[in-house]
Amino acid sequence: MAHQQAYQIAAPFVKWAGGKRQIISELRAHIPDSFGTYYEPFVGGGAMAFSILADNARTPCSLSDLNSDLIITYVTVRDRVEELISSLRVHERNYAQDPRAYYYATRASAPRTQVAKAARLLFLNKTCFNGLYRVNSNGQFNVPMGRYTNPNIVNADALRSASRILRSRRISIKCADFTAVLRTARRGDFVYFDPPYQPASRTASFTSYTSMDFGAQDLARLAETCNKLSERGCYVLVSNSDTRNVHATFDADWSVGRLRAKRAINSVGSSRNGHSELLIQNY
Ligand SMILES: C[S@@+](CC[C@H](N)C(=O)[O-])C[C@H]1O[C@@H](n2cnc3c(N)ncnc32)[C@H](O)[C@@H]1O
Q1: Which atom of ligand 1 is nearest to the CA of 14?
Q2: Strongest mean pLDDT among 3-12, 59-68, 254-263
Q3: With contact defined as beta carbons under 8 Å apart, do 103 and 95 qualify?
Q4: How many CB atoms lie within 10 A of CB 31?
Q5: Atom of ligand 1 nearest to the CA of 67
Q6: Most C-beta atoms within 10 A of its C-beta, which of 42, 117, 134, 223?
């Protein structure tokens, strides 16, 4: 019961493309029995991180992502949650007056302060199509407005709960390329990599969380990073799409399993019904 309660409290506060909330129970079966620090270098909405913290809020965690707006939002939720909630209330009131005009004006805006940046990201996340985060090559958010009658723009309880959890001194939150994990991860630590997926087909591509796409070279860098961590004695778990290039990238030392996953981020309607994805691990 205590666990059940904690798990409900520590939930992701952004909906993220490729988020693992829907398959978290399958993923949890792959968490090592015991480990030192938990690393999540492509944290996104942080479904796995919040789930691990729900088990034990004192787990040392290193959470990072290359999307600076996302990391600013995590840091703001942690350090300035009440100001953030007030700013979201202003968004909520303005949106209610004229949703369409306000959505597109906010999408076009470029706030300068930390709280305003975080509030903008959360507002757009709640009101855009599908809760998708996608930017163009200039780094500008370009998702159209979603169709919601009453979006939950100010989820104050969820934000306060996340803030409480993230304030642990054992949690670090950084904007960094995933290879930064090599600087500090040690034997016995657990690293979960959930990178932007390699496209299963040309039309199914979704890798634009930042202005730089995650391509074949990044996949090769990821495999190299995984091999180094493995040699060091870390537990390494990787999610990715079930594609030939992903299979070819990890050699026979890695154990590869399949998971059926439902996703709703592809532009092609028929591919929303689910497909298999890979879980690659060294333990
Ligand atoms: C599939 S999402 C992660 C989803 C997350 N596991 C969840 O449950 O919401 C991939 C993330 O990788 C980030 N990313 C892309 N390239 C990166 C890089 N080179 N280093 C670190 N993060 C990167 C994106 O910003 C995005 O948040």
Answers
A1: 9
A2: 59-68
A3: yes
A4: 17
A5: 25
A6: 42
What is the amino acid identity at position 76?
T
Percentage of the chain surpassing pLDDT 70? Answer: 87
Domains of the chain plus CATH, in order, are 2-68+164-204+214-281 (3.40.50.150), 74-157 (1.10.1020.10)
The angle that helices 99-108 and 81-97 make with each other, rounded to 10 degrees, is 130
Within 6 Å (CB) of ligand 1, which residues are found? Answer: 16, 18-20, 41-42, 44-47, 65-67, 177-178, 194-196, 209-210, 214, 218
User: Would you list the DSSP string of 102-150?
Assistant: HHHHHHH----SHHHHHHHHHHHHHHBGGG---B-TTS-B-PPBP--SS
> What mean pLDDT is predicted for residues 54-76?
96
Cα(198) to centroid(ligand 1), Å: 12
**pLDDT over 50 at 25, yes or no:** yes
Most ligand 1 atoms within 8 A of CB, residue of 28, 52, 65, 132 to mutate = 65
